[in-house]
Amino acid sequence: MSPGAGRWADPERQARAGVGGRLRAWYRARPVPEGIRITRVGLWYLLFALLVAAAAVNTGNNALYMVVAVMLALLVVSGFVSKTNLTRLALEVSLPAEIYARRPAGVAFTLRHHGRRLPRWLLVLHFGPGGRPRLVPYLPVKGTARGVSELLVARRGRHRLEHAHFTSLFPLGLFRKGMRYPLGRELLVYPELFAGAGVDLERGGLAGEESSRRAGWGHELHALRAFRAGDDPRWIHWRKSARTGELIFTEREAEETLRLSILLDNALATGGGDELAERFERLVSEAASAAVAHLERGFEVELVTRTTGVPFGGGNRQRIAILETLALLDTVPHRRRALTPGDPRAKQLRLGLAAPAAAAEVPA
User: Residue 224's beta-bridge partner residues?
Assistant: First the structure.
């Protein structure tokens, strides 16, 4: 729905806004014509009409004059009908919960026809360049149409979806009329996610469980020692006990929670230019891809940058927190201080323009 619809539906808000506020709200919420353009078919039609008109003038044939009159009348009627075909519409949109850069996002819409006389035909809805338009072939009087269109945003960060664009070639395809309906919706676009080949997720032993080399309840052998009161009898090493004549207890290594620390250096040298900026955007996408992939595999993941960070955590909330942080991450002037992980024992993925991209470091 256009932003002004809710304001006009609230009497209390109308009273508070006053006449000037209501006029401003109406002005912002009104549909804005995008002009009318003649199509290639329309150009050929107009050229043919001019040829017929020239023939009528040269020959003085009344029948040709009648043909020219009909053709010009159709031209005028087509322009008028194409204009009215895009009016008296109300649009409501439902944005997806997650939108990623360079990935089509489905936008559910509900289109209503508030006119009283004529139905609407061949309406094409789109939300800006890159997205796939959606055709609404027929919308009856007081009728409703629902569907899903596509939105494509090229870069991460905050964006505004200011308008929805309607175009139509109805009735004869001679003109393309456009109308812009205000939306005024804010979008938070997450970084582009790469496929499995985008970041080497297995490099440096990032996959698999990690033993802590401390006594615990894991599967790896830690040490053999004398049995003590309170030890679990199930872990007695009977062969060793029979050989030594005393009870020998088997200690296992504790298995720690899988952890990955992503250290993204967002320091950028001044005057780096567009090339460095594009490389940094790729590093942000690599960090997002690694975080999502490892969280899905049960890791606890943290994000460390020069300006902000997300402490260790797992699950969907952690995924959203990291993606939101990366979506809004900006560069800072170059600094020499190295980034440090929250847990030095965790696996590390260091990303920065000063180091090879996607180079994983495994702590000793």
Answer: 250
Q: Which of 311, 295, 293 is nearest to 303 (CA)?
A: 311
The Cα diameter of the chain in Å comes to 129
**What is the pTM for the complete model shown?**
0.72
pLDDT band at 251 (very low <50, low <70, confident <90, very high): confident
Centre a 10 Å sphere on the Cβ of residue 226 and count the other Cβ atoms it contains: 11
Q: Is the pLDDT of residue 223 over 80?
A: no
What letter does residue 358 receive in the DSSP assignment? T
Query: Structure tokens of 301?
Result: 């993941």
- For 123, the 3-state DSSP assignment is strand
Which parts of the chain fold into alpha helices (H)? 3-8, 11-29, 40-59, 62-84, 238-244, 273-296, 315-327
Q: What is the DSSP string of 196-207?
A: TTTS-TTGGG-S
Under the banding of pLDDT at 50, 70 and 90, the label for residue 18 is low
Residue found by looking up tokens 């809805």 in the block: 125
Instruction: Please report, as a single letter, which amino acid is at residue 51.
Output: L
